[in-house]
Predict the 3D structure of the following.
Amino acid sequence: MIASLIEGVPHRALALLGALLVALVAAPLVAGDYLLTVLILILYFAYIGQAWNIMMGFAGQLSLGHALYVGLGAYTAASLYVHFGIGPWLGLLVAVPVAALAGAFIGFLAFRFRVAGVYFAILTIAVAEFARVGFDHLSWTSGSSGLFLPVAQFTHNDLWQLRGHPVMFYYILLAATVFAFIFCRALLQSRVGYFWRAIREDEEAARSAGIDVFHYKMIAVVISAAMTSFAGVIYAFYYNNLFPEQVFHISRSIEIILGPIVGGIGTLFGPILGAVVLTGLAETLTAALAAAGIDLPGAKQVFYGVCLLLVITTLPDGVWPWVCKRIGLAERNK
Amino acid sequence: MPADVYLNVAVGGVLTGLVYGLMALGLSVIFGVVRVVNFAHGEMMTIAMYIAVTLFTAFHLDPLVMLVPIAAVMFAFGYVLQTRLINPFITRPEYSQFLLLVAVAIIIVNLLLIAFGPDAQNVQTSYAYDSFQIGPLIVDATKAYAGLAAIVVAAALFGFFQYTRLGTAIRACADNYTGALVVGLDVKHLYALTFGLGAACVGAAGCMLLLIFDVTPAVGPAYTLLAFVIVITGGLGSMPGALLGGVLIGLTEAMAGLLFTPSAKSMFAFGILVLVLLFRPQGIMGKRTA
């Protein structure tokens, strides 16, 4: 199993991966509170980006509504906790199937009727927006006034109830990101992974080669939705407050997908590198503007937008394929 | 509630829907020819709305009077955007174009935020509270003017595409890209013209919408979404479809606001979109091979 996963990977890449993992595990020992928060954000986006990449990067289905799955995961687990005192790990057993069902619903609607491309993308936005307005009016989750979890005490870490210090969340997200990375690598090498890439490159050709296109697209959307909802559960217990206006908003969906696109779509390292680049960029801009004494709301986002423009016009395939060429690593799982 | 209340709200919804339709028409024209989905569409409209607000507060120029110059400014903006930024992206994958336009949208929203602040602005015209009475029907003057203006602009655009040489050339690009190149059309220039026309549509629609709604920098993305919903409902790439979709969505929103709660109205618009995608994915007036 493990042997097949690392088969064909250059030694240099393996050594690099190992070093990166050691550095990440050791990071909380040296990082201050601020850096830790940034690292948590990076891991969060790296993990969700990996999940989104399964749908778009592997199977070629552009979802612009992944905030839906984050929100469903977050709201399901948080409501169970607030209303019935059910802990997050048991809540996960409900939250993940709920999100997977939502993914299956969208997939069924779209793939049954051959809704594809732009139309599919807009369907995913529409369902997420539908959920946003719906949750705004759902009194069980306190509607637009927001759902609050009892605030955590930092005196001791309770892993079972997910109450505790950010370091705990850091390691949970690190474990999730590592799992997602290995899982995606395994997916790419599996039969399903080859079928997905066949569908991505040419759906008609895949169909005529005997691939059950509907079936495999459904698998992609369900796996992606389920993985994304886990991040939603963590989000709820890390931030302790949920507002439909924030969780389900289209700008959340866009944030999720910027990482993998900037990093390199369809690659295993793209989502991780994209999360580092974009979160790093946003934090650097905040610091730079503060240092320059510029206190204009919106100034940071303007620079952020300009940087995005520069990246997309100069590196259309993403940063990772470009880095690969620089350091002499061939990207095998394109 | 008496029946004429429903009727009044319905008429108001249809008139607002015509303006929505004109906004969506811009998106539809751009997609139909350039094959790029303009994810900065609503944001472009807010630019026009802020120009109109500024002209009104500074010089008391009525947005409807300034409609043509503002549309011209937006045309120039669209033309430059297409030639400078979008033309190189025409052959790139959809997600790449999406990212480009999202970046443009982020820049627009936040530049407006810096320039005008987060507070809602509007225009108080002399006829803001006038209304026409037609039998039992009471129609707001602002909505009536806005709806009529939308029809006039849309008709002008139909005429341009149907009866002028330039319009015919643009339609040729949309029908057959290679063919258009072969007969010697300057496709890049025509694409830029088309994007300019789409931008002019939202420019005009922005002026009209300003009579009915306030503007804040943050409304841009909401209008972008609304334009998508309308265009897909009516049929992406179909000009009459965009207008029809606009009227349908305007009517639905108005009735949902009356029967349920105004804050839930967009839910019904999205509900319609899901139904259309289910039963007629190409849209009401769209062709199957979209």
In short: The domain at 2-327 of chain A is CATH 1.10.3470 (ABC transporter involved in vitamin B12 uptake, BtuC). The first strand of chain A starts at residue 147 and ends at 148.
